[in-house]
């Protein structure tokens, strides 16, 4: 295999189509109830500790870390923490599904990547679930659809 060409499907493995973030699941996957349920299950296992079950950045780990950092006597034992991001803020809510997949895979800023722990299909399921979660919290304001859903 030539260097830099270890796989052909950039959509599936990088979240990129024609040099842009993918807006839908790879063609080998279906956006259906089973995929969203699998995404929710994986999200609850890997993501909710920091981002919270509803995605507002209020997970148990984040809450405890914020308590330690904001201790009245100063951070406990030099604790430092960057608050988990709400998945509903403007910048994240408008990210294409491929960009969310890429973030789960490689991480971003202080968030570690999960490419080694979570299978490719499950990372896509998480990205689809996050889009559905975002839609569920913003359904009335824009009438937007989950990216990748059939018309």
List keywords for this structure.
151 residues; two-stranded antiparallel sheet; 4 strands; mainly alpha; two-stranded antiparallel ribbon; single chain
What is the helix content? Answer: 40-55%
Reading the helices and strands in chain order gives HEEHHHHHEEH
- Quaternary status of these chains? single chain
Strand order of the largest sheet: 1-2
Please work out how many helical segments DSSP would assign: 7
End-to-end CA span: 39 Å
Q: Assess the beta-strand content as a share of residues.
A: 5-15%
Number of DSSP E strands: 4
Task: Give a nutshell description of this structure.
The protein is built from seven helices and four strands, in the order αββαααααββα.
Mind explaining what this structure looks like?
By secondary structure, this protein is mostly helical. It has 7 helices and 4 strands, in the order H-E-E-H-H-H-H-H-E-E-H. Strand 1 and strand 2 form a beta hairpin. The longest helix has 23 residues, at 120-142. It starts with 9 loop residues before the first helix and ends in a 9-residue tail after the last helix.
List the topology elements.
Elements: H1 10-14, E1 16-17, E2 20-21, H2 33-46, H3 48-51, H4 60-69, H5 90-93, H6 97-106, E3 107-108, E4 111-112, H7 120-142
Antiparallel strand pairs: 1-2, 3-4
Helix pairs in contact: 2-7, 6-7
């Amino acid at each position: 295999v030539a260097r830099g060409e270890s796989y052909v499907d950039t959509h599936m493995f990088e979240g990129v189509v024609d040099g842009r973030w993918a807006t839908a699941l790879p063609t080998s996957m279906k956006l259906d109830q089973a995929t969203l349920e699998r995404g929710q299950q994986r999200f609850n296992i890997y993501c909710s500790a920091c981002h919270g079950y509803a995605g507002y950045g209020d997970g148990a780990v984040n809450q405890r870390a914020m308590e330690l950092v904001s201790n009245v006597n100063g951070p406990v034992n030099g604790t430092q923490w960057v608050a988990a991001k709400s998945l509903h803020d403007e910048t994240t809510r408008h990210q294409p599904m491929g960009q969310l997949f890429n973030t789960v895979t490689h991480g971003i800023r202080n968030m570690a990547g999960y490419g080694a722990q979570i299978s490719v299909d499950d990372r896509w399921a998480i990205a689809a679930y996050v889009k559905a979660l975002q839609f569920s919290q913003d359904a009335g304001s824009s009438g937007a659809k989950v990216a990748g859903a059939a018309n």
